[in-house]
Amino acid sequence: MSLVCAGKPAGFRVWSGDDSFTLPLLAVGGYGVICVISHIAGPAMKAMIEAFLDGQTERARLIHGRLLPVIRALMTTASNPIPIKQVVNRLGFPTGPFRLPLAPLPEADLDRLMAVVKEAGELISLPVSVG
To answer: Taking CA 113 as the corner, what is the angle to CA 80 and CA 77, rounded to the nearest 5 degrees?
Structure first.
């Protein structure tokens, strides 16, 4: 077990708070993730985690590698929750307007972000709307 989890009390679980470190943290004994990308790629994140837990590390690595550009783009384009909210909205799931002091991304930034999202292909999915 790594230093990340060494000395933890029995029953204590170490979670990733950074989407890009989910797979590496699992590899050193972590447990799960509090995740931004799950808003648009929940099934893919679940598949990555389940693949790792089932010993399918190559499959987990491939999913992680395909999600990583989206994660990086979401986390570096602007402060959260601006990028994810606009992506979810652009993908057709209404998120409502921003409240001050948050403001929408410039259209060119959103277009660049959406190009990265599109590259992830079938890994990107939104939950089915209820109601």
So the answer is: 40
Return the residue matching tokens 């979670």: 15
Q: Could you give the CA distance from residue 42 to residue 20 in angstroms, rounded to a whole number?
A: 14
57 to each of 34, 50, 51, 114, how far by Cα in Å?
21, 10, 6, 28
First-last CA distance in the chain = 45
Question: Is pLDDT above 80 for 16?
Answer: yes
Q: pLDDT (tens digit, 9 = 90+) per residue, 62-109?
A: 999 999 999 999 999 999 999 999 999 999 988 889 999 999 999 999
Q: Which residues does 4 contact at the CB level (< 8 Å), separation at least 6?
A: 14, 25, 28, 29, 30
Give the count of beta carbons closer than 10 Å to the beta carbon of residue 20: 17
Ordered domains of the chain (ranges, CATH): 15-120 (3.20.20.70)
